[in-house]
């Protein structure tokens, strides 16, 4: 069952329950009020009857006349019986059909008593007079109460049916109106095509939870679109880059197998094939790293950033002279806690290694400056080289896999290292800025989150 129908059904059931409870309360309150009023009328009848029968000898004709008029004006539906202190009938308007001795005893004990049997109402009054103690019993049926009860039930039933009909119609309409944005979004989702951009849903601003849901869904779609584009470009680039070393290997082996050659030629061919195979291995390792970044980022630990930098310098010193790298640690000992960072050590080592290695490679014989400092309570790293630089038109593509600048053809590489490094920084929420001027400098600035 759809949510829209569930809302209509649940709202109707809840309203029906509330209306039913309210109707019962109204019915009981009305019935009790009517019954109390009628018992008061029977009590008045009992008093008038007692005075009419027992006070005649004590009052003058003028004083008794109002009582007599009131007695004769009593309702014909009311039957009056008066019992003396022995329980015998002293006066009645109609013969009684059962023994009332038990009720007479209760009336004497309580002074007055209201009770009902089926649709017949009774009021008993204990009346003390100079002639003795008497019990007055008034019996009556009230068709008016029963008629009012039936009419009230009918009114409540009709009101219930009308109210439920209106409620169902209104709830159905309002639920359709409330879920119209959801239905529109569902239609848009069904029409989404990954090959068409932008991959976004349109909606009207409503400043409510639905808008927050749509915003979250659009954020997810944006990530899907980015991931899909990256995957598509990744497949295109990787297939192209993998073909180059594979084609070179195949070509070298085919040439070597065409005719007998000297050992020195086989050694040269083997060396070239080994070099291409190593390049192919490096590309595959980078591809695997790039595809597993999101999974590996989950494994984080607390580490010292400066220690990672020194480890990288030590490793690169096997290839470059020690004076190539100029490290400046500008963090005071009391602020060394700023050097602590929670992240994946392997990925951060790889990212920083790629940045520093690129700086060393593209600066040739010129030094690389690495500055570690604290600014605005945030750890900052600045990697500066004075090499070939990056062309302005190439800067916007620097994070794409396999992208290499137009001025890097004379240097070995595959364009994966920097894209992996920037992706690692992004996953660690490390903000990066790359500025460059061809043939002058390239500067990478990293700002670690607090």
TrEMBL record:
Molecular function terms, GO-annotated: phosphorelay sensor kinase activity
Keyword list, A-Z: Kinase, Membrane, Phosphoprotein, Transferase, Transmembrane, Transmembrane helix
Entry EC number(s): 2.7.13.3
Domain named Histidine kinase: residues: 237-450
GO cellular component terms, A-Z: plasma membrane
Enzyme class: transferase
Protein name: histidine kinase
């Amino acid at each position: 069952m759809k949510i829209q129908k569930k809302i209509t059904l649940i709202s109707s059931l809840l309203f029906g329950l509330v209306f039913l409870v309210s109707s019962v309360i109204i019915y009981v309150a009305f019935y009790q009020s009517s019954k109390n009023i009628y018992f008061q009328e029977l009590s008045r009848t009992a008093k008038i009857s007692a005075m009419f029968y027992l006070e005649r000898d004590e009052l003058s004709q003028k004083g008794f006349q109002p009582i007599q008029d009131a007695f004769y004006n009593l309702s014909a539906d009311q039957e009056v019986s008066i019992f003396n202190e022995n329980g015998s009938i002293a006066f009645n308007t109609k013969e009684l059909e059962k023994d009332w001795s038990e009720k007479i005893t209760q009336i004497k004990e309580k002074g007055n008593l209201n009770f009902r049997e089926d649709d017949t109402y009774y009021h008993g009054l204990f009346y003390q007079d100079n002639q003795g103690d008497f019990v007055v019993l008034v019996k009556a049926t009230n068709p008016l109460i029963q008629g009012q009860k039936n009419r009230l039930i009918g009114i409540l039933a009709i009101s219930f049916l009308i109210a439920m009909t209106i409620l169902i119609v209104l709830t159905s309409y309002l639920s359709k109106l409330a879920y119209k944005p959801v239905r529109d979004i569902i239609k848009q989702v069904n029409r989404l095509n990954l090959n068409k951009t932008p991959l976004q849903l349109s909606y009207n601003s409503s400043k409510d939870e639905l808008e927050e849901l749509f915003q979250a869904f659009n954020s997810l779609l944006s990530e899907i679109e980015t991931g899909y584009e990256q995957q598509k470009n990744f497949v295109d680039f990787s297939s192209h880059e993998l073909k180059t070393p594979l084609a070179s290997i195949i070509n070298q082996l085919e040439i070597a197998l065409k005719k007998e050659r000297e050992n020195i030629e086989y050694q040269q061919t083997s060396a070239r094939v080994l070099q291409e195979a190593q390049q192919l291995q490096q590309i595959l390792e980078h591809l695997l790293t790039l595809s597993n970044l999101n999974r590996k980022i989950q494994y984080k630990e607390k580490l010292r950033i400066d220690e990672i930098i020194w480890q990288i310098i030590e490793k690169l010193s096997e290839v470059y002279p020690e004076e190539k790298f100029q490290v400046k640690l500008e963090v005071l000992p009391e602020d060394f806690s700023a050097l602590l960072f929670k992240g994946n050590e392997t990925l951060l080592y790889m990212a920083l290694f790629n940045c520093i290695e690129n700086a060393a490679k593209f600066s040739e014989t010129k030094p690389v400056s690495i500055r570690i400092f604290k600014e605005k309570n945030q750890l900052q790293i600045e990697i500066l080289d004075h090499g070939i630089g990056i062309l302005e038109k190439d800067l916007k593509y620097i994070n794409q896999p396999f992208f290499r600048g137009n001025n890097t053809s004379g240097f070995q590489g595959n364009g994966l290292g920097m894209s992996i490094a920037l992706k690692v920084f992004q996953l660690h929420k490390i903000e990066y800025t790359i500025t460059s001027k061809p043939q002058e400098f390239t500067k990478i600035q990293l700002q670690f989150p607090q």
